[in-house]
Design brief:
The protein has 109 residues and is of the alpha+beta class. Helix content is 41%, strand content 34%. It has one domain: Alpha-Beta Plaits.
C-alpha cells in the first residue's frame, strides 16, 4: 500500500489552475448592466476555453468585479497556457471591461 502511495505522490496526476481577475466596468451604470456584461464574458470564456467561471467578489459594486476562473489538466504547462489565454482574451476582447489585475496559481495533486 505504501509503495503505490509513493508512486502516485511522485508524479502529478492532476493540476488545478486558478485565476483571479479584477475588472473595472467604466461605462456601467447599474447592477443589471454589470450582470449583462459579465454574463457575456463568462459565457464566451466557458465556450472558448472550457473553463469554470464565476463572479467571486464585489457583487454589489456597479463598476467593479472579480472573476474566478478554474482549469483542470494533467499537464501543468497546459493549465498555465489556458489561463494565460483567458486573460489575453479578456484584454484583447471587445468587452466593456478593463482588466485591473490578475493572479494565476497552479496547484498540483
Amino acid at each position: 500500500m505504501d509503495f503505490w502511495f509513493d508512486v502516485l505522490a511522485a508524479r502529478s496526476i492532476m493540476n488545478v489552475g486558478v485565476c483571479q481577475i479584477s475588472l473595472r466596468l467604466p461605462e456601467n451604470l447599474s447592477l443589471k448592466g454589470k450582470r449583462q456584461v459579465l454574463k457575456s464574458v463568462t459565457t464566451q470564456l466557458q465556450n472558448k476555453f472550457n473553463v469554470c467561471v464565476a463572479e467571486v467578489s464585489d457583487h454589489e459594486l456597479w463598476q467593479l468585479a472579480v472573476l474566478g476562473v478554474c482549469s483542470l489538466s494533467n499537464d501543468k504547462r497546459h493549465t498555465n497556457e489556458i489561463l494565460s489565454k483567458v486573460t489575453n482574451f479578456i484584454i484583447n476582447g471587445r468587452f466593456d471591461v478593463e482588466m485591473l489585475d490578475y493572479k494565476i496559481e497552479i496547484i498540483s495533486f
